[in-house]
Specification:
With about 190 residues, chain A is α+β, with helices and mostly antiparallel strands. Chain A is about 30% helix and about 35% strand. In chain A, strands 1, 2, 3, 4, 5, 6 and 7 form a 7-stranded antiparallel sheet that branches. Chain B has one domain: Porin (Beta Barrel), CATH 2.40.160.10. Classes of the chains: A alpha+beta (about 190), B mainly beta (about 350). Chains A and B meet through α1, β4 and β5 of A and α1, β1, β3 and β4 of B. Chain A: Keywords: Signal.
Chain lengths: ~190, ~350
């Protein structure tokens, strides 16, 4: 019995700590959920831009460059695949698409993630999950009661993703020197004179 | 008791481990659907015999569909099994290649492996849902519950090997070698050549131009050309189109048809859609052709994983090829009408 109580408490604590960690994204002046951050930086503008390009290339399955304005304002579109999970069973149930903006200023840079929209998935003829539409529903839209809990979860997942994305981006821009993408492995030629 | 707790703890621990590992490796995906329906034909006969939703005045089964998918690095597999009339003898051949409800026992809708050689080029081999046509076997992926004449006449599955090259997000090309339609193993060798060109001219509009030449499900060497396209015009309005032409060897058999699918979503959970279809059976050896027109109005009402599909359908068979009967069940009739209500649960 003690063991059961201990296990129950452990599960509750895990859930509680998860709930504590994630809060909804704040909204900008137009009412859109937005993750916005200004970062002081000693890295030169050109290097920042190159490192950003490197970051986008390395994460091309997650985010794609849309436009860049003479190295100042860079816009990219990204997606977060939402997994529907029941214990160890899981499959994608949809994706949240967003717009990423990055701008370099004097001794600093800023970036923001906004325009979060949910696109549900459906299974195609080959058994794969694919977007059921190309037009997403903005996360700001108020859901019906029956869908409220699920929608709130999408908003929380977007917030959690944005915080994680920001950390990865900042780490990359600060710590990483621009390393070229991995080259094909060289063949080892042995026993040659 | 202690053993149970230990087992539960181990399960939770492994779940947590899987959750952490998810960032780098895809978990085993398990998904599927379950469907059931009621149909009432206004002439009290199972007049409209296109695939699925055939039983008159009966609460009947569709199928339970179970799919597994796993991706490890560049390689993946899909295995999809179906149990029930829709998923067995109505759409899956048995070991002998027939559709006998007694002997049917393979239950396989999809069974293939896939390897992505690069971001642009993938190869797939196995038994796959066909690339031809707009509608599919799974009710979870169709808007209407009953299916079109085009769907019922075309292939259901193609076993073979295919390569797909993506030139960009807007253009890709698939070419493959296949067995005869709907066969687990080839009877006359790998006899079919097929291809699919995908183009996406604007955001939301995708078109597939398909072609397949080889031994068809009717025992003829035939060529089918198919156009399948859909355009999500606004958040609420979507329109789809399917057109196909099949010509058999010596032109002794064939069909052509077109179906239009306008849909309107009142909310993300409630939508209404029409299917308007014209289908023509080509005359054998230059004989007279026969045509059917069909209008199907369906609603989609979603709540969680469940979708209710109320549907009314009117078919006109001016050439009496479908054997529609009047309510006395003996006199042939040119038209047939039915109402059906289906419930489809996807997970």
């Amino acid at each position: 019995m003690k063991n059961l109580l201990f296990l129950f408490t452990l599960i509750c604590l895990t859930q509680f700590s998860y709930a504590q960690e994630v809060t909804l994204l704040p909204k900008d002046e137009t009412g859109k959920f937005t993750y916005y951050e200004v970062v002081e930086s000693t890295v030169k503008g050109d290097s920042l831009q190159a490192r950003l390009s490197n970051f986008l290339t390395r994460n091309k399955k997650e985010i794609k460059l849309k436009s860049t304005d003479a190295g100042k304002l860079t816009i990219a579109s990204g997606k977060i695949v939402i997994q529907k999970s029941i214990t160890i069973i899981s499959h994608p149930s949809g994706e949240i698409i967003y717009q990423f903006n990055f701008e370099i200023g004097e001794g600093k840079y800023r970036f923001w993630l906004t325009d979060f929209q949910f696109i549900p998935y459906q299974k195609d003829r080959y058994g794969n999950f694919v977007p059921s539409t190309t037009i997403g529903v903005p996360l700001e839209k108020e859901p019906k009661k029956s869908n409220a809990q699920q929608w709130e979860d999408y908003r929380l997942q977007a917030a959690k993703y944005a915080a994680d994305f920001a950390k990865r981006l900042k780490d990359h821009l600060v710590n990483k020197t621009i390393s070229p993408l991995p080259l094909p492995e060289k063949k080892v030629i042995s026993k040659t004179w | 008791m202690k053993n149970n707790i230990a087992a539960l703890s181990l399960l939770l621990l492994s779940t947590a481990t899987v959750a952490v590992a998810q960032e780098k490796a895809s978990p085993l995906e398990i998904s599927g659907s379950v469907d059931t329906y009621y149909k009432y034909d206004f002439n009290k006969s199972g007049n409209i015999k296109t695939y699925f939703a055939n039983d008159q005045n009966s609460v009947s089964l569709g199928m339970i569909d179970l799919a597994l998918k796993k991706t490890t690095g560049k390689a993946s597999f899909v295995g999809e099994l179906s149990f029930g009339p829709r998923g067995q003898f109505q759409s899956i051949p048995d070991a002998a290649g027939g559709y006998d409800p007694v002997s049917n026992g393979f239950n396989i809708q999809n069974l293939y492996v896939n390897y992505a050689f690069s971001d642009k080029f993938t190869m797939t081999a196995g038994y796959m849902g066909t690339f031809i046509g707009y509608e599919v076997i799974s009710p979870a992926a169709n808007f209407n519950y009953s299916t079109s004449y085009l769907f019922g006449s075309g292939p259901f599955q193609n076993a073979g090997i295919k390569g797909t090259y993506s030139f960009s997000d807007k253009v890709s090309l698939m070419v493959g070698l296949f067995n005869e339609w709907n066969q687990y193993s080839a009877i006359r060798g790998v006899s079919s050549l097929g291809g699919q060109l995908m183009v996406s001219p604007v955001e939301g509009w995708t078109a597939y131009i398909n072609g397949l030449h080889g031994l068809d499900g009717y025992g003829n060497y035939s060529t089918i050309v198919d156009l399948t396209t859909a355009y999500q015009i606004t958040e609420k309005v979507k329109i789809g189109l399917n057109a196909a032409d099949l010509s058999a060897g010596d032109d002794q058999f064939g069909y052509s048809g077109v179906a239009l699918y306008p849909q309107y979503a009142f909310t993300p959970s409630v939508a209404l859609g029409l299917r308007a279809e014209y289908f023509n059976y080509k005359g054998i050896s230059g004989g007279p052709s026969a045509s059917v027109t069909s209008f199907t109005l369906s609603g989609n009402i979603k709540s969680g994983g469940l979708t209710f599909i109320p549907e009314v359908r009117f078919d006109n068979d001016k050439d009496f090829t479908q054997g529609f009967l009047k309510s006395n069940l003996t006199t042939l009739n040119k038209s047939a009408a039915q109402f059906s209500l289906a419930a489809v649960y996807s997970f």
